Amino acid sequence: MIKNMTENQITLHIIKSLKENKKKEFESILDELQPYDIARIYDDLPDKHKTRFLLFLNTDLLADLIQELNKETQLEVLNKLGIEKTGKVLDTMDNDDLATLLDDLSPEKISSLLAGMKKEESKIVQDIMNYPPETAGRLMTNRLVWIRNYYSVKEAVEKLKIFAEFAETLNYLYVVDQERKLVGVVSYRDLLISEPNEIVRNIMFERVISVPAAMDQEEAARMIERYDFLAIPVVSEENVLLGIVTVDDILDVVIQEANEDIEKLSASGKSIDFETKTFVAAYRRLPWLILLLFIGLVSGKIISSYQETLNQVVALAFFMPMISGMTGNTGTQSLAVVVRGLVSHDLDKGTLLRLVWREFGVGLIIGLTCGVLISIIAYLWQGNAILGLVVGVSLLLTLIIGTLAGTVIPLILYRLNIDPAIASGPLITTLNDIFSLVTYFGIASAFLHLII
Amino acid sequence: MIKNMTENQITLHIIKSLKENKKKEFESILDELQPYDIARIYDDLPDKHKTRFLLFLNTDLLADLIQELNKETQLEVLNKLGIEKTGKVLDTMDNDDLATLLDDLSPEKISSLLAGMKKEESKIVQDIMNYPPETAGRLMTNRLVWIRNYYSVKEAVEKLKIFAEFAETLNYLYVVDQERKLVGVVSYRDLLISEPNEIVRNIMFERVISVPAAMDQEEAARMIERYDFLAIPVVSEENVLLGIVTVDDILDVVIQEANEDIEKLSASGKSIDFETKTFVAAYRRLPWLILLLFIGLVSGKIISSYQETLNQVVALAFFMPMISGMTGNTGTQSLAVVVRGLVSHDLDKGTLLRLVWREFGVGLIIGLTCGVLISIIAYLWQGNAILGLVVGVSLLLTLIIGTLAGTVIPLILYRLNIDPAIASGPLITTLNDIFSLVTYFGIASAFLHLII
């Protein structure tokens, strides 16, 4: 019925059915919509219709809806539902989404929400929440189909059919032994082409790739990306199958991690998006800016210590923004290459040395090119060959230093298990600013008697 | 057998089986490995063993292997295989991967590679290559299961079983009408719980979410991410089903697009990774740096036009790096917020105005905070209250301007369908540098008689 309608038309239609209290009509519309769309419609609905909208939804749809809302709205919806219905809805939600929902809430709020849930479901969620944030354990769901290694193919297919409604993906079944240890994996395809009486143990794939629950989510993402999996099993230290992490959650992780890298590279501090309030955004950005202010003063201090030189050749000031800008920039370029490269590469010693050597070469080439160029320009502009040479040699040196600093510092941080992206804002910018000013004024002072 | 071996042990085992010409043993090892791992082992193999390694692989494994190699090695492998085997392997490869492989090759090389392929397979690949790069059409594969809307549930299940081996994902079947137009989608789950004689048309979900083949891959990624799909159908302008884009390709797209954003934000030019050669990396980074060199000279020119002012109060130079650094930084922060926000948000007029207003507020707050702070510091350092006031007011103004420039410019570019991330390196940095120097020296010159 609503196949060719726009979102606005659908919303109007829904409001009409709510006003006229026509539940059947309402359900037939909702039936054709994706959870994401239902959530957007709920967001846009006038407040007075929201309560009845929720009343008209069954538990499954409510669970789907809540998973697509932002945190504030989630809690608002749960408040409207009351304890009993909330319990049912939380039972139905994916465990990983529920764990995310409970994440920052107070312990009292959490226990009041979990109170209405089934014991076994609330136990699972609490187990998930025991893993540190941003680990595979925190992301996993228990909506997977597992079979015993002594099952026959026929038994496996039966189990698959029963759990089809429940499982997140159907392409793979995980095989466990008596102790629920993960011992193999069987594809749906293999089941279809095998004899019904064959034992699973004999057709399964034994070298299962799994991740420990404590693994960092970024590393788990790398595994799924490498192997093109739709899901990866999560195991305990004893190799007991705990759950799976699915690719849709990994997609969110990858976007989140990329945003974090960009935030750190642009020194914009903790996550700010379109919805962040003015004061919060300013508050989150200020620490970096104040740090940078003091860093800027360090540069100022360096310049002031060369006040004599500057007083005698004011023209030196003209090239200051160019030299420090270029040095900062080449450093950021190297940093970006390293930070993003580490997303998809392991870092062994060979890679490391090759990379540093490559970046040294890059620094040398761009340093020579830009150095020669600026020498000529400076000479033509100021009519002073020595000044040109001073500026050119300074730029050559600062570009090599800047490139190496942008490469080596994040690599060292990575080795020390510190996130290299954090290095950008303060560390590299400071160091490169200071390096470049000291180099520039140092060389200029040495040749001062020739310039004047 | 190899279940608990390390990668090195496995490689040694494989080399042994190659030396002793034991194909059975070789195959039993390979059987337990993932394509990604096979590719890594191939990469590490001494050259003298590579040819026999390839000879021992069957067509399916060869196709899997090639999909995991980098481009150079892919072509090297195909060369070793000869025309006939190459044709068979290319027939087996996923069409989207094959299209990527052929991407930058010369027309002669492409037709020589396609020569050995089956007509229908090579036609499909050529069709895919007709879509512009970075579109849904370019990413799609035809490994999907589709059924007619007049099929019975029983017929649908039969077809699913036959194609299970071939399809990328099994959770959904796409339903087409007589003209192959996409009219619905049925989940595997719905098939299992329906009567075998029910007609697909009656149980299918009609509001199918699909993407046009010409859609930008980033937008297609956003759809999959929003709806948590494992695959999304791709249709022609006439709504004819052409293929599907799967989430594993989307994962690669998301990583690639994030890298591109970071490259542009750090002005590091076209993609550079750990493997890029020194000269290529230098060549790709140089254009931006040379541009920035000239931009730096514009700043120098502005400073030189205030030479008189600077001559009289050299201390003004001390605060130059701080003011331009801070302005550049707040601009980059705003830019990062906008660029990444656009990854997951649509931009309507309300959002736009709210965002600009928010950033103005942020600029005002950080401008006031940092302005007051620097006024005090400058006064204490230089013992000149007017100088402190000049520096403070300049910083307040330049921070507001910088924040707004970093917000408004990328939004305008986005509206003009230009990638806003590109705005960073040159545009925002230049403008903010120029704004900040003109503001600073303008204010300083106006109050010059008071400072001295």
UniProtKB/TrEMBL annotation, chains A, B:
Entry's transmembrane regions: 286-307, 313-339, 360-381, 387-413, 434-451
PROSITE patterns on file: CBS (PS51371)
This protein's UniProt keywords: CBS domain, Cell membrane, Magnesium, Membrane, Metal-binding, Transmembrane, Transmembrane helix, Transport
Pfam families in the record: CBS (PF00571), MgtE (PF01769), MgtE_N (PF03448)
Entry-linked InterPro entries: CBS_dom (IPR000644), CBS_dom_sf (IPR046342), Mg_transptr_MgtE_intracell_dom (IPR006668), MgtE_N_sf (IPR038076), MgtE_transporter (IPR006669), SLC41_membr_dom (IPR006667), SLC41_membr_dom_sf (IPR036739)
A Gene Ontology cellular-component term: plasma membrane
Membrane topology category: Multi-pass membrane protein
Record flagged with keyword Transport: yes
Molecular-function GO term, any one: metal ion binding
Compartments (UniProt record): Cell membrane; Membrane
Domain CBS per the UniProt entry, residue ranges: 140-203, 204-262
Domain of life: Bacteria
First-listed, main subcellular location of the protein, grouped into a coarse class: membrane
SUPFAM superfamilies: CBS-domain pair, MgtE membrane domain-like, MgtE N-terminal domain-like
Record family assignment: Belongs to the SLC41A transporter family.
Its biological purpose: Acts as a magnesium transporter.
NCBIfam families noted in UniProt: mgtE (TIGR00400)
The protein's assembly and partners: Homodimer.
PANTHER family in the cross-refs: MAGNESIUM TRANSPORTER MGTE
This protein's name: Magnesium transporter MgtE
Organism: Mesobacillus foraminis
